[in-house]
Fold each of these.
Amino acid sequence: MFSSKSGCRWACYKWKLGTILYMENEKLRIAILVDKGTDIVEFLYKPIDVDFMWRSPFPLYGQGFPETIHGKLGKFIDYYPGGWQECFPNAGRPCEYKGADLGLHGEVATLPWDYEIIESTSKSLEIKFWVRTVRTPFLLKKTLRMESGSPVLEIYEEIINAAGEDMDFLWGHHPAFGEPFIDENCKINIKGAKVEVLPGDGLSLTDLKQTTGTWPMVEGINGKMVDISNVPAPDAKVSDVIFLSELIEGKYEIINKKLSLGFRFEFPENIFKYIWFWRVARGSFGYPWYGRTYNIALEPFSGKAILSQAVKNGYQLTLAPGKTLSAKLSVTAFQI
């Protein structure tokens, strides 16, 4: 598709889903679904031709405005391609907020975004994206930037409250990692956190007790301690959602020792105070995974799920009318 020797560049294609935009330099190729949430469905490290992102079993197809079957997973899952989603203004299962019915992980992951090429030279590439939510009065802006020869993607974001009243929200990033990057040779590096293992859904297997602990050790169902920084093997038959809080720093790394390849995500921990850790090793049965998927996700979020519960328990983010919240995030691919 591109020469690997020509510095920064971009390309845009139209197909049945809508617009897919590629950002690329000598180290990285990133594929963005502009008309579906700006999902990053490819994050390829070119020197050894490895894509970090997981692809779900669901095909990519076109869609429209968000819809919700209240209490059900609904449209987010139906159109979930894997990869990396922006989640806003809800996080987790559907809920109601100020009379608005909000679906799984909010609105913006199922909406088309606008974009503009801000800078495009052989030395640097910068693209701005933005979207207005439908059921809530927010404007979300996001700028992605890369430099020639650098394995780093920088992300600059703004949340703007366009309402005439205070607005609450949850905000998160939902990157899911899969094969060939993810396997039992992977280690997750997090400096320190409190661990909370959530209850299962009755359709999943686990080797962990529903308990709390300190990263990375959690009590297993057999009474022995489990090091959850070790990624389970593909056929481990486990499926868990784990909340990490009280983060020592806003950073994590996933390192595949066999590939000598790592993925580092840095984020402001004063905004993204939690990491949601989702791990599935063919241990989730029934809808939607049916025992067929293998992936992990490490997701910086502003709070626990869901927005209605966040407001009750005081862990939501709030903006006054016309006010803005900004954040800078950075992702680095590296070899060891």
Note: The chain has two domains: 12-171+327-336, 185-301.
Amino acid sequence: MDSAFTLQPVTRADVPELLALIRELARFERLEHEVVATEALLAEALFGATRNAEALIGRKGGEAVGFALWFHNFSTFVGRRGLYLEDLYIRPEHRGRGYGRAMLTHLARLALERGCGRMEWAVLDWNVRAEDFYRSLGAEPKSEWRIFRLAGPALAATASSSGAPDANGQQTPEESP
């Protein structure tokens, strides 16, 4: 790996650059239409009163070549928090130089320092190159688990439902787990 490569925590001044990298990642993942994040939302999440996420930026000679953004979750089975890697992105022209590995190594060390029981992330099923890279580190896919998501109107509808069972103690079919 290039000795000019550095990892630094994202600062408030880096937020516009971080958002640009997030948009690049979204284009790569064919999900650009889902990006609604703004600089203000990112700044609040990273530096607000309730810090919801953390991020680092990788630079080579001052140029941003990628980023990682993560937060802590909790495992009831392990009884400890974990580190959930929301996004890891290296610009295509900088891939294959060890920058992604350096970011994952940094995060694995951070997870252990913070007493995390595990580190997890999701990979799009078509991103075979990423899957191969993660497997080379010893990461194992959890194929028996599927990610479910409530967002937009479905999230609002669920939040506005009573969630209470009917008079017979049954949930309606649309509420049954």
Note: The mean pLDDT is 91.
Amino acid sequence: MKKLFTIVAVAAVALSATACSSLGGKKIDSLSYAVGADMGQSLVFGMKDLQLNQDVVVESLESFYKDGDILGEEIKETRAKIMEYQYTVFMPYMNAKRHNDYIQTDCPDTLPALPELFNETFTCEAVSKMIGMNMGAAIKSLQEEIVMADVLRAIEDVKALNAPEEADSLLRMTNEQIRNAFAQYGERQEAKAEAERQKLMKENAEASAKWLAEIEKQECVQKTESGILYRIDREGTDVKATEDTDVVLVNYEGKTSDGNVFDSSYERGEPISFPLNRVIKGWTEGMKLVGVGGQITLWIPSELAYGERGAGADIGPNQALEFKVELLEVNPAE
């Protein structure tokens, strides 16, 4: 039963290769057959206690793959309902079943009756349809061409098995072939992601260089030897941070070159304190350029910010950043 409610994550699991296999002269698409075999075994063996209507599952799977929207509200609501079913119906059933299985008795008829697996809200057909939709969405999320006929063929092949152990001898791909295909799919996805990352790194580096070049032309903007651009927006006192271990109290706002605010102490409603040796290099250097009570704008090249790795969803690799900072206090490290 372990696979029943992890099927949402099927698309994130390395599934299979697109190379072709054959049996009895019939060629099959390995990616598609492996997906079908994996889902078929979940359906036939992993979910056997559910007694789903397998025809409805397969019909719903095929229908969603053809016309469904993996980012749409329908699949979001379906997954929420699956979770509700899991916690309100399925888990109580399984807990009661485990309890009954644990009790040793010569009179099994005296054991408490198990809760029902279906009810007016979650009928057998409704749950079967939800599981099928979820499987269809998972397949559609793979971002590789799928031959649905081979997915369905694999599911039918699994239905003919009496036990999972028969898979190696009776399916058109052995478990080892499927595992190898899974790994190949994962490798292709990693290579694709890395190629996209390299492209983004190049685009961001070029855009950042162009942006900083334009900033450098602005009035009152100065440049440090390391490449930081800065402008003193409000003069402060003569008290400045001088050591990397100094602790500063600041209010600040951070933006990307397109004006997106990715961090702001103003939005949080309170300043923040930190030692200068625990922030990006551009801050460590830049905060020594303004006195207490002053305000400075920093434009920091990516190599002095978050570099090739970026930071979270808002800061991409090789992306230069802008910070507007008010220095409120400077204190030596304790």
Note: The radius of gyration is 29 Å.
